[in-house]
Amino acid sequence: MITANEIREKFLKFFEDKGHEIVSSSSLIPADDPTLLFTNAGMVQFKKTFLGQEKRAYVRATTSQKCLRVGGKHNDLENVGRTARHHTFFEMLGNFSFGDYFKKDAIRYAWEFITEELKLPKEKLYITIYSDDDEAKELWMSEAGVPEDKIFRLGEKDNFWSMGDTGPCGPCTEIHVDQGEHMTCGPDCGIGKCDCDRFLEIWNLVFMQFNQDEQGIRTPLPNPNIDTGMGLERIAAVCQGVYSNYDTDLFLEFINFTAALAGVTYKKDGEDVDTALRVIADHSRAIAFMISDGILPSNEGRGYVLRRLIRRAYRFGRLMGLSGCYIHKSVAKVVEVMGKQYPELCENAEFMDRVVIMEEEGFNKTLDKGLALLEDEILAVENTSAKTLKGETVFKLYDTYGFPIDIINDIAEKRGIAVDEDGFNAFMTQQKQRAKAAWKGAAGDTLAARFQSLLEEGVRSEFVGYSNLGVESRVA
Ligand code: ATP
Ligand code: MG
Ligand code: MG
Ligand code: MG
């Protein structure tokens, strides 16, 4: 069996042999780009090169990029644990051309890599193109020999890629793998018709040709570029013959680790246990990489995303009967397993451990009381016709018990109860206005103040993330 580490290496080597510079992954915090919360694709570190604002010493590059899709245009948090193919944190393999090669070579390279290097069976591969991109269609037929009936035209939603609301963008073409008829979701199953895991999207080749401004107006870039992205976790699943990313070597070690800790067995103790194990494995990877890139739990911005992930993972652990602090242990496991590929994890290991423990201890104090309140509220609305948790209740769980909305959604959804998110948001806005009026310069968040003193104590001699700290963490 080919391991994920071997696939990553093979990919970078393949493109290096084709004249690409191997460039290191950039941080999860985009460098001086206020339009983006997190790095969500391989092209993010090359944005200025695409825009013609920065020149590089090379015109071809290849990377394995750390990505996070929680918040902003690309948000997959709710998919995690539900689909077999979405993570919060994942690695994106990519090759890039800065005004050098274009559609023809991008298509040829991708096809050669998956059919010759990875030996995926051609008959299982399907292609999508942007609606009127006849050129891409012709190239798939002439360069790769893909039959016409395996090429599908899709619209903007699927086949026009943009990083965010503004920035570089362009039409794209994607490679899908048919995972087999037994995965069919129903009579309407098919590419572009459903969102199930039968036709798995593995690789996106973007023809970067435009820059989109705040008004949505697209102007051509100085040169046409290539930007591709293939999820390592997905291609690993395909190469390892499994139907879920969570059953690859990238995840099983973490899943089994937490299962042993909780005294449960993956795939033997029911769907709830499996979901909990998958969520904890996913979130632990994200937590480790976020902290090592300089993000700290806080009540705003990136720090709040981290806090949400730690708390959501913690609640899923509690579901399996875990008590005390345990998420820091699975986070340490991530450092142990992935530290070789990403040394920044090891440099921050001790600090990371203490940050996660503090956050777990804090949440542990209020979790049980909050869960009891939530249970009472659910029982109260269960027999009403609206079956909806009021914004006020949700806000109380958030404000007094530290429940992020994701946890409330997870629990309510399982019970068939809706959540009044608009009502909750209205309470949030009011609270922010009150806080603004009352602000006297004090640190409102006691945990954040403790993280700050941890940093000042100099827990580790060198905290590489310190210089990267997002504003919201620094002021908290
Ligand atoms: P999907 O339609 O499955 O949500 P996408 O179209 O949003 O994927 P792209 O923006 O095209 O994804 O990103 C390029 C590639 O990155 C995808 O083809 C996939 O292999 C991978 N990828 C995207 N989102 C995720 C995720 N949340 N977890 C793991 N891999 C992902
Ligand atoms: Mg998506
Ligand atoms: Mg897609
Ligand atoms: Mg896509």
Please characterize this protein's 3D structure.
- The protein is α/β, with parallel strands linked by helices and 476 residues long.
- It folds into two domains: 236 residues, BirA Bifunctional Protein, domain 2, CATH 3.30.930.10; 228 residues, no CATH class.
- The chain is built from 17 helices and eleven strands.
- The strands form two sheets. Strands 1, 2, 3, 4, 5, 6, 7, 8 and 9 form a nine-stranded mixed beta sheet that branches. Strands 10-11 form a two-stranded parallel ribbon.
- Helix 3 packs across helix 4, helix 7 crosses helix 8 and helix 9 crosses helix 12.
- The longest helix has 34 residues.
- It starts with a helix and ends with a helix.
- The C terminus is likely disordered.
- The chain binds adenosine-5'-triphosphate and magnesium ion (3 copies).
- The site of one magnesium ion has 3 residues, from strand 8.
Task: Give a short synopsis of this structure.
One of its GO terms (molecular function) is alanine-tRNA ligase activity. By secondary structure, the chain is of the alpha/beta class.
Features:
binds magnesium ion, 11 strands, BirA Bifunctional Protein, domain 2, 9-stranded mixed β-sheet, globular, binds adenosine-5'-triphosphate, two-stranded parallel ribbon, 17 helices, about 475 residues, about 45% helix, disordered C terminus, alpha/beta
